[in-house]
Each structure stands twice: as C-alpha cells, then as structure tokens.
Amino acid sequence: MDISTNEEGRASVMKLNGRVDSATAPDLESALKKLVEGDKTRIVLDLADVEYMSSAGLRAMVSTLKAVKRVNGDLRLASPSPRVEEVLRLAGLTSIFSIYPNQKDAVGSF
Q1: Could you confirm whether domain 2-103 is CATH 3.30.750.24?
Q2: pLDDT digits 0-9 by tens, 92-103
Q3: 45 vs 26, 29, 56, CA distance in Å?
Q4: What's the predicted TM-score (pTM) here?
Q5: CA 10 and chain centroid, separation
C-alpha cells in the first residue's frame, strides 16, 4: 500500500493505493494519527485506487473519525472502488461516513 498526503483547500487529502489489510493497516493508522496530531482534522481519504480493505483498515478509519469528531473535524471518503464500497456497506459504515463520488466534491464539502 502506498500513502500520499497533500493539502487541498481547507482539507488534508490522503490518497491510498493498493491493499489495506492486517499488514498495512498499522501504516494507515499511523499516517492518519500523524495528521490528527498535527491539528489536521478535516481529512479526505481518497480510496479510488484501493483494491482491498480489511476490517483492520476499517478500524483505523473509524478510530480516526472518532478522534476528529471530538474536535469538530471530520473524515470524509472519496471515490471508493466498488469493492471497497461494498465492504463499507456490509460493515454498516455507509451511515457514519460521508462518501463522495470524487476527491473534488469531498474537499469542497468542508
């Protein structure tokens, strides 16, 4: 899994590429935690190039969402692949995450 982060307007955009599984989820969690600790609480997670998302990856996303919500921030998801969107739906997470069709819409929502 590759992670790249950049600032877009009022949000931090983290783009993931590859598989988010039990081996790579700690890297995702660490990268997200670093953003939050740096007072970056408006985060867009671009999931367009994620081919697989495990429960460990979902856990990292949910824990970050809780952390940023405590300080009036949000973690929004952009362009999840059909497979990742299905995992989110099956896990019942589509109701707690704001999901946007593309990165531009997600960033613009802040």
Answers
A1: yes
A2: 999 999 999 999
A3: 16, 12, 16
A4: 0.95
A5: 16
